[in-house]
Amino acid sequence: ECSALSSSPSWFLSFSAKDMKHRLGFLLQKSDSCDYSSSQSKKEKISSSQRLSQEEVRKWADSLENLIHHDRGLAAFRAFLKSEYSEENIEFWVSCEEYKKTKSPAKLSPKARKIYDEFISVQATKEVNLDSCTREKTSHNMLEPTLSCFDEAQRKIFTLMEKDSYRRFLKSPYYLDLVSPPGAGCGPENCKRNHTHTLDCNSNIISQCA
């Protein structure tokens, strides 16, 4: 067989090599095309899953609970509170939620102390508005921190936000720009104020709406 191959004309070997190269190139192109299509399909699925529906946004107006338990609702509300220089309330609430997920008993005390020093103590850098009774009870809880040691303080701050800032949020561009009919856009005619930080109507990220 080897002798038969070696005696084959040179044009036959050349043709075979070119043919193989052509076929290999075609297969590689097809593979790249499939990979690209697969990549595009994945991106479209991800983009679709990240879209914020009007139904979701409208549910935020049902209760503060619905709003802050939705990742993007929480982001919008946090941005609004930041514009009012009162973001310490939602930051305290979020910190308490994360604290209650602590699994190691050894981490309870240092975590509780950090939250207390940041939001409740007299010299707290982000002191929240608590009545003296709740503040005193929370301080006493610091002696032996448990997963529920901030529960009362957290409820008071939640109620405060619910009766005050949450109602203003629903009337602000931070919410109205998202709940407006699809296609309305985020132009000057829909913005109450210039250079207001809000969630972009299409990309759902914090941006400026000029």
From TrEMBL:
Annotated coiled-coil segments of the chain: none
Highest rank taxon of the organism: Eukaryota
Pfam family, one: RGS
Assigned keywords, A-Z: Lipoprotein, Palmitate, Phosphoprotein, Signal transduction inhibitor
Ranges of residues in domain RGS: 63-179
Name recorded for this polypeptide: Regulator of G-protein signaling 4
Species this protein is from: Origma solitaria
Gene field: Rgs4
Record InterPro entries: RGS, RGS_RGS4, RGS_sf, RGS_subdom1/3, RGS_subdomain_2
Function of the protein: Inhibits signal transduction by increasing the GTPase activity of G protein alpha subunits thereby driving them into their inactive GDP-bound form. Activity on G(z)-alpha is inhibited by phosphorylation of the G-protein. Activity on G(z)-alpha and G(i)-alpha-1 is inhibited by palmitoylation of the G-protein.
SMART domains according to UniProt: RGS
CDD domains: RGS_RGS4 (cd08714)
GO BP terms: negative regulation of signal transduction
Record PANTHER family: REGULATOR OF G PROTEIN SIGNALING, REGULATOR OF G-PROTEIN SIGNALING 4
